[in-house]
Design brief:
There is one protein chain. Helices cover 0% and strands 30% of the residues. The termini are far apart. A hairpin with a 6-residue loop joins β5 and β6. The chain is mostly beta strands. Strands 1-2-3-4 form a 4-stranded antiparallel beta sheet, with no helix packed on it. It has a two-stranded antiparallel ribbon with strand order 5-6. The chain has one domain.
């Protein structure tokens, strides 16, 4: 958002979860999950251009998950991924 009284300007498109972007001194790293594999992109503040850094398979989306972070030096990306979704349903007789 600009200074008080100015209209907000959208700078990122395609960011599905609020935890999928990180602001750094030079720009914003974000996960564009609109395709599979997802793309990690970088919005450069100096040039106002977006470039693709890498791609990654996120696995199935699940509630409360899918976090994304960046090391302070910008050299490493950390994210969680669920590789398999399973559940067991059990019947317990004489349960009280």
């Amino acid at each position: 958002m600009r200074l008080p009284g100015a209209e907000p300007v959208r700078v990122l498109h395609g960011v599905q979860l609020f935890v999928w972007w990180k602001v750094t001194r030079d720009g914003i790293y974000f996960v564009d999950g609109s395709a599979s594999p997802a793309h990690v992109r970088f919005l450069d503040f100096a040039t106002q251009r977006v470039r693709t850094i890498t791609s990654m398979y996120l696995g199935p989306l699940f509630p409360g998950g899918q976090y994304f972070d960046l090391s302070p030096d910008g050299q490493w990306i950390l994210f969680d991924r669920l590789d398999q979704v399973e559940s067991d349903i059990m019947v317990v007789k004489n349960f009280r």
